[in-house]
Amino acid sequence: MANNAISDAEKNMMKTVEVLTKEFATMRAGRATPSLLEKIMVQYYGTPTPINQLANISAPEARLLVVQPWDKTVLPDLEKAILKSDLGITPASDGNVIRLAIPQLTQERRTELVKVIKKKAEEGRVAVRNIRRDANDTLKSQQKNGEISEDEQRRLQDEVQKLTDKYIKEIDGLLAAKEKEIMTV
């Protein structure tokens, strides 16, 4: 029963780190990656559809993304969706493919992005701490109900704390790597 609390806590902490990793991947860091377009939804026959389900997205150069739709009739809708997105990039279409030139980030924009990723990392840390609190509450109630001894509760709480430290360290590592990536000119 008590081990369930530990394994659930670890699973949830792992998920938190995975979500943060995905969030960081979709943030622009000055170089073109197909994941930049992941969040863009396109109206395809009246249904919002992720752009990567309608087109092949590639990065042939460091500052260029090429969006090649499988269905040429969807090209105008793809352009509209990219223009509406918060990327701030104007698509260039030749009737077959859309080219997205990724501009160089200004120092001011880099600083802004670092603030955003620090905020997201802090949200991740808070989520991990909330998971720790929930696990500790579960262990306290199990001890109160006589399911585990007081010594067992303390040992398991130490284990939860070690997990918390591990995942917060992982979040800090992700943050440092992304910050370095953004600040590299």
TrEMBL record:
One Gene Ontology CC term in the entry:
cytoplasm
Cellular location(s): Cytoplasm
Keywords, alphabetical = Cytoplasm, Protein biosynthesis
- BP GO terms, sorted: translational termination
Purpose of the protein: Responsible for the release of ribosomes from messenger RNA at the termination of protein biosynthesis. May increase the efficiency of translation by recycling ribosomes from one round of translation to another.
Q: Which HAMAP family match?
A: RRF (MF_00040)
Give the protein name, as stated in the record: Ribosome-recycling factor
| Source organism | Desulfotruncus arcticus DSM 17038
Q: Gene name?
A: frr
